[in-house]
Structure of Cohesin subunit SA:
Amino acid sequence: MIPEPTASAATRASKQRKNSHDEANSSAVNQSEDESGNENRQKSARRRKRAHTGSENVKRKRAKASGSSRAGGSEHVEAVTLFQVLTMGRSAMQTVIDDWIEAYQKDRDTSLLDLISFFIQCSGCKGVVTAEMCQSGEDSELRSKMVEELDEVSGLQYKKFLAFPWILTVTWPLDTDNVEYPLIQSGPEGRWFFSEFCDFMSVLVSQCQHSVIFDSYLMNTLISLLTELSDSLVRAFRHTCTLAAVKLLSSLVAVALSLSVGIENITELQGKRAEIESMMDILFKGVFLKRYRDVLPEIRSICMEELGLWMKLYSSAFLNDSYLKYMGWMMHDKIPDVRLKCVLGLQGLYVDPQLLPKLDLFSSRFKDRLISMTLDKDNEVAVQTMKLLLLISRTSDDALSPEDHQQLLQLVYSSQRPLAAAAGELLFSRLLNTAGPTSDTEDEINEEDVHKQHTSRLKALLQFYQESELHKHVVYLVDSLWDVGAALLKDWPTLTSILLQDPSSQGPGCRGTITAGRSGAKKVMNAKERKIQNDDCTKLTDHFLVVLPKLLSKFSESSDCVASLMKIPQFFLPECPDSDNTQAVLALTAEMETVLERHAGPSVLEAAARTYLSLCGDGTASSSTARDARDSVVQSWVDKLTVLLGGSLKGDSFSADEEKTGDILATLKKLRAFHNCHNLLRWNLFELSSPLLSVESSEGGAPPEVLLEVLQCLSSCMIWSLSTSTDTLTSREKALAQRLQLRLFCERGHHCLSHSDPRVQQQAFLGVCDVLTAHSFQLQVWDPSCFGPLLYTPSPKLQRALSTFVCMHVFTGPDCESQSGVSGNSEEERLEELHKRRNMLAAFCKLIVHRVLEMSMAAEVFIYYMKYYNEFGDIIKETMCRTRQMDKIESARTLVLCLQQLLVRLKRVQESGGAHPGVQTFTSIRELARRFALSLGDQFKFRECVVMIHRNGIEFVFSEFSPTAETPTPPYLSYLPILSEFSSKLLKPDKKTVFSYLQRHTAEKVIDLREEGWQPLLYYRASLLAAAEGEDAASYVSSDRKYLPSRSKLQLEDQLQSKPSGKDSRHGSLFHPRGASCKEIQHPGNCPSILNEADDDTVEVEL
């Protein structure tokens, strides 16, 4: 917006008006646009009723001419500028532009200056526009005047350019490039201005096309103005005027199209059309050719978007290879939006059959680039390019070769669902649609022909899947075709008839709601889509309740096929009629029981357990029938396991042959899989299978595979028992029995942690952690009004065993990989092993977060934060955040304990003279302390924690130290540089307190600070002082070493500082968090002086 001109600008404009021979030959436009948006909205209703004038420079003249008529009491109508009309809608815009045209016909120079000012204001320029007339456009001195200068003294920038017959001068502040101009405003304001500005250009040309557009003055001046400003170094001018120029050209295209009516018979219209095409050619060469490769990506996008529109609307002039080449070149642009505009523009051309002959050369020249863009890093560009290639494939059979189609069709397995769906549409139209008539004609043929067509299409699809070697998951192929070929894929009778008749057919894949690993799918369905899905589920349920038992019987020998088939009932609609449903469910469960007798694989058992859970739901009509069938199956397994264990467990030993062991293992797998989904507590599996864990492995214990299943089964039993405590625990005796089971399970799990097989150890660890976490959670959500579970605390021996297990089996370096059994194996096995270790670490951290273990035990995990940051950094960081939310002080003590343990271990290794690969170096310990300090965040929030860390560190170094000839320095003096990493987190009032506390611990023990052994103390003191003054610690170290006070002077200084000052402290002391007593500091005589220390901004220490 243009504010009121300065005094100098006004004086300069008035002098120009006086010296001019003709008042019309020299004018100045000085405007101010300070009205707020609220005022414009309040006046918009009145302006729409009667929009007055569009000429700012003639509004005073018109006001004087009509003054007599308004004196009689008529209402005064406020003048509206062209820039203000953007806020008033399209109808008011037309009225104001009509008034501007009327003013232009009376005084075209003044009105043109108003239009020029409009473009300057739309560029966000807060400046002044002045003009001077030139007699001839061929004047040799004009080029010397076309400059863009900077006046650093006045803080203004000048641009002179020719808009014949004027030389225009635009003056604006120097910081224009740093200000957000209207076109780049964020949010709805920027989008609104873009739309209104484009509408203004369209309305301006449409309203002028029958009058002043052909006067050889308006358009020449306007084109000259936009051409010069679009070439400006100022971004705002260049962006705004390039948009105005290309929109002006688009509006001229519309005018040229309107002139095409009857052009063969009217010579005048032919001349007008030639004139319009001349204007378009000047704009294209003067603006587009300079700006389509502009450094600003928004300008490049605008140019390519409008070029596609010109070629589509006015193909006779623009649709040729001379213009198409710009589309092909800009498809290599590094900005995705520019490439997207090119592809969208080409889609508008290829969709019109009449334009295809002019696109043959372009298709052959840029075909390879289009195919490569299907793998674009921007998903939207890749999807739209695939849609463009689909149009090309449909319109021309020879445009894409068979190799090109083969490459494009493999994208049905893409991880991006929109791209895969577009490739699926190409697959359906290229291969499947040739096997029979399209879906539009299927209503006219009988059901038998539809069945034959679907059969041929399914066989073609199966052949494509078998020939494709890129991907082996049929689920992705089905999901890609679901949008375009839903009628084919939902033809359940045809699908099942092929499976039942063709002996070579494979079992089908099952499609879920969202394909794993594929993004971009629509996750929220509307009411119409939910109704369609409900109808599909109804048809699926009615058909597969009858056919599924036959399919299970036919493919019962293949575990993969029956696992996929048994997932189908999970998508059944619960609301089904009760008439034939019971018999169908009985037949289905009987066939599933037969399958479970043959197979004990994990995929089959998991599918069966989930299917039984779906059929036994309360909302299903045949839930009682399914429950009876499930109970019968489980009872048969329990009876079989009872008999097998009765003959295998004899006293404290386990003896069974290979066949019997296999039966025990298969039965335990089935019970474990069902116990994960179903509550089987009434069969008392805990008492039945727990004796297997009491047998010593050295005395003929159960095989590791059996122990794995037993541990998982017992863990499920305990979790189900804890989760149902509200309903089952009705007396103290039951609560005691549950706690006894919990203690027994933890003891057996603790015993299994020392088993020889690593798999048994890991499963025992995970089982104990999960059960203890579930017990803690149950205590937290327990309703006091009901009888809940009793508290159980794991023994200290078990807690130490869990902590040791984590350190030995989770934090293993490259030298320990042989222990985990993955040395030299493939990358997939290494990642699987890492996944197991992450699960074990997460299970242990849950015990700390749920307060099962003491927070101090987290120190054993925190010490590996930096060493294993890439593998477990996210888990450890989340644990630190959770513990900090529980108790900030205790969490800070844990960090201190972690650093001190690392330093003690390093000291022991150094004293022993050996080298241990698991011990971290001093540099790594200090880096860990720096990370801990960064995690503290807000200084005010963690003020108490930081002070406690410093106090604890000083006590750790000096509390038990007495200087002797053998030990002149404390053994852990090197901890002070580590502690200095937390100095920057101290607040200014606390730095003096910490420094004074350090003085009291060192005054009696420091012999001579000039000795090299006291360098860590000097560095720590310097870090406190440097943090207080905001300087570097190294300078304080050097100044400390120049002159150090003697021991007697330090004692005197300590005595002087220990006297009560009598002043009230301005900041509360945080040196003793939670009211810690003075005895904790081990200097009771000095405690009052520390607490009553004056809180000054500086620390007076003589150096």
